[in-house]
């Protein structure tokens, strides 16, 4: 391991690999440090990689990336007690390049992406934990401390891609507000099914895949669920507000079990044999939870910078990690070449992010997580939507059809949804997503 | 457990046995059971996805680091200053996910 380089990247997840790739391509000496035995070993997620961000970075990515299935069907399922309402989109052209989404195991995908950084000239060392920052008397970050013997590495720039718990961003004082309200915890089961059974059950052909995002079904704990297909496994899990989980007194695996027993989910997971259980916290606070993104000698990207998009309709993270990592790599190249990695020079990073999809989306969807994780969207609206659907599709002969206006009114009364709240949330939703 | 949702999955031990852990010699999380004794919620006990926090008969909390997902939940739910010290295991050690 070199003891002095141009850029140290802490963490070889998607953010770190993208940062290392871009900085190495620009000719910098890059050291990419991963604490797991291989990149991806510490990582889990809620299931889909949206690859548009790879088109410019790695134009031939779809021929090489270790993908499980291409997502050709995207469903949103609203669960109420013993009812479900599903909206599903199927796009045949999503089964051909350039593809819209893919499922993958992070142990495969992250290792592949870090391999691309290596191919571009970055040095990857695994099984090494970055334990802290080196700083000069003025507070400028000047490198990292690792748990290897003689493990200090000096560099004019450190890119912290050390994940949602980012000890480095906290050590650098970038998080002013580190609070549980900005986090959820994702808990997931990967269930093995014979490939032909899985494809028959989900009506999939070849390498087509299905992704179901679920609202409701989390036993009143704010959050949601997901179910998606890999080649010969399905992944099913829940995402729970950490504060909600704390207050519930329930165990996470019980919430998954309850979801799996819902009549709309049970037939989909039947017979699946548990092959891996996993959990991780997720930064879902959007702009509210975001730290400062740079300081003298250091940039932060990916989950470490709270850059997950959890906005109900759009649940994205890996692409935001890659996007922010790549821009951190660009900023690093420019700053190191100019010999100025001061806090003011690195302010260019945030400006780059503002001009990209990364912060543009976060700005636009700023209030989405509050709406989605609110009590009405979590429990009342799923009940309302499923109830209205049931009335619409129930044939009431010999009574004539009452009509939508009466059905909505009756369901509002039954579920206790006030018109004022519905209008208010509708307006917020329109402003947020419109 | 909610009586309406009978839990039908594998035993918790079998569940955790699906995950690879390369156990470090030193614990990366330590719990100060003295501090826990004055904690009324002990939310870590039910919130930890790996079920690693066990209440003791004297009102404290026992923690076993060996099957830790390194997820961060305990650190977020713990409201007692100083009860938990939290870091990552030494390089190469700890949880290894393969299909997640």
Fold and architecture overview:
The complex is a heterodimer of chains A (434) and B (100). Chain A is of the alpha/beta class. Chain A has 3 domains: 7-67 and 104-176 and 291-355, FAD/NAD(P)-binding domain, CATH 3.50.50; 180-283, D-Amino Acid Oxidase, Chain A, domain 2 (2-Layer Sandwich), CATH 3.30.9; 369-433, no CATH class. Chain A is 36% helix and 24% strand. Chain A contains 16 helices and 19 strands. Chain A has helices at 14-25, 54-57, 61-64, 106-119, 167-171, 195-202, 242-248, 252-261, 266-269, 318-338, 347-354, 357-364, 368-372, 375-393, 404-415, 419-433; strands spanning 7-10, 30-33, 69-80, 83-90, 102-103, 123-125, 130-135, 141-146, 153-154, 157-160, 183-192, 208-215, 223-229, 233-241, 273-283, 294-295, 298-300, 309-310, 315-316. In chain A, strands 3, 4, 5, 11, 12, 13, 14 and 15 form an 8-stranded mixed sheet that branches. A 6-stranded mixed sheet of chain A has the order 6-2-1-10-17-16. In chain A, β7 and β8 (141-146) form a beta hairpin. The longest helix of chain A has 21 residues, at 318-338. The longest helix of chain B has 5 residues, at 12-16. In chain B, the strands form 3 sheets. Chain B has a two-stranded antiparallel sheet with strand order 1-6. In chain B, strands 2-5 form a two-stranded antiparallel sheet. Chain B has a two-stranded antiparallel sheet with strand order 3-4. Chain B has a single domain (23-96), classed as Alpha-Beta Plaits. Chain B has 4 helices and 6 strands, in the order αββααββαββ. With 100 residues, chain B is α+β, with helices and mostly antiparallel strands. Chain B is globular, with a radius of gyration of 15 Å. In chain B, β3 and β4 (61-63) form a beta hairpin. Chains A and B meet through β11, α7, α8 and β15 of A and α1, α3, α4 and β6 of B.
């Amino acid at each position: 391991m070199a003891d002095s380089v141009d850029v140290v990247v802490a963490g070889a997840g998607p953010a770190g690999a993208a940062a290392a790739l871009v900085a190495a391509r620009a000719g910098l000496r890059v050291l990419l440090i991963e604490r797991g035995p291989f990149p991806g070993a510490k990582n889990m997620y809620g299931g889909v990689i949206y690859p548009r961000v790879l088109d410019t970075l790695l134009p031939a990515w779809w021929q090489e990336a270790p993908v499980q299935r291409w997502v050709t069907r995207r469903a949103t399922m609203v669960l109420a007690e013993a009812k479900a309402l599903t909206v599903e989109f199927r796009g045949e052209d999503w089964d051909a390049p350039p593809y819209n989404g893919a499922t993958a195991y992070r142990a495969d995908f992250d290792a592949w992406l870090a391999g691309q950084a290596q191919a571009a000239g970055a040095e990857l060392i695994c099984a090494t934990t970055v334990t802290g920052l080196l700083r000069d008397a003025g507070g400028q970050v000047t490198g990292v401390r690792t748990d290897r013997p003689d493990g200090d590495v000096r560099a004019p720039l450190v890119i912290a891609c050390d994940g949602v718990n980012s000890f480095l961003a906290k050590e650098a004082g970038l998080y002013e507000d580190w609070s549980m309200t900005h986090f959820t915890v994702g808990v997931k089961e990967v269930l093995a099914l014979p490939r032909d059974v899985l494809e028959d059950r989900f009506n999939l052909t070849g390498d087509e895949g299905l992704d179901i995002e679920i609202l409701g079904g989390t036993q009143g704990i704010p959050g949601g669920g997901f179910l998606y297909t890999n080649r010969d496994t399905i992944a099913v899990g829940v995402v729970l507000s950490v504060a909600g989980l704390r207050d519930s007194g329930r165990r996470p695996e019980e919430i998954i079990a309850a979801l799996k027993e819902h009549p709309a989910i049970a037939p989909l997971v039947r017979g699946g044999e548990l092959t891996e259980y996993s959990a991780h916290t997720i930064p879902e606070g959007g702009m509210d939870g975001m730290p400062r993104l740079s300081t003298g000698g250091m940039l932060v990207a990916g989950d470490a910078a709270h850059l997950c998009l959890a906005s109900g309709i759009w649940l994205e993270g890996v692409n935001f990690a890659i996007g922010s990592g790549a821009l951190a790599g660009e900023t690093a190249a420019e700053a190191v070449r100019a010999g100025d990695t001061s806090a003011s020079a690195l302010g260019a990073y945030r400006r780059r992010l503002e001009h990209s999809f990364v912060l543009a989306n976060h700005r636009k969807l700023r209030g989405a997580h509050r709406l989605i994780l609110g009590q009405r969207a979590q429990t009342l609206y799923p009940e309302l939507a499923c109830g209205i659907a049931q009335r619409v599709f129930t044939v009431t002969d010999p009574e004539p059809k009452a009509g939508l206006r009466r059905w909505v009114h009756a369901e509002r009364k039954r579920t206790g949804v006030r018109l004022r709240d519905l209008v208010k949330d509708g307006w917020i939703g329109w402003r947020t997503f419109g | 457990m909610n009586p309406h949702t009978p839990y039908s999955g594998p035993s918790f031990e079998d569940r955790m046995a699906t995950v690879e852990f390369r156990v470090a010699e030193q614990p990366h999380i330590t719990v100060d059971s003295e501090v826990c004794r004055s904690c009324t919620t002990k939310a870590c006990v039910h919130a930890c996805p790996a079920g690693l926090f066990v209440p003791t008969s004297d009102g404290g909390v026992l923690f076993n680091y060996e099957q830790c997902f390194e997820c961060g939940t305990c650190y977020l739910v713990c409201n007692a200053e100083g009860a938990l010290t939290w870091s990552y295991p030494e390089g190469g050690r700890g949880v290894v996910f393969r299909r997640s």
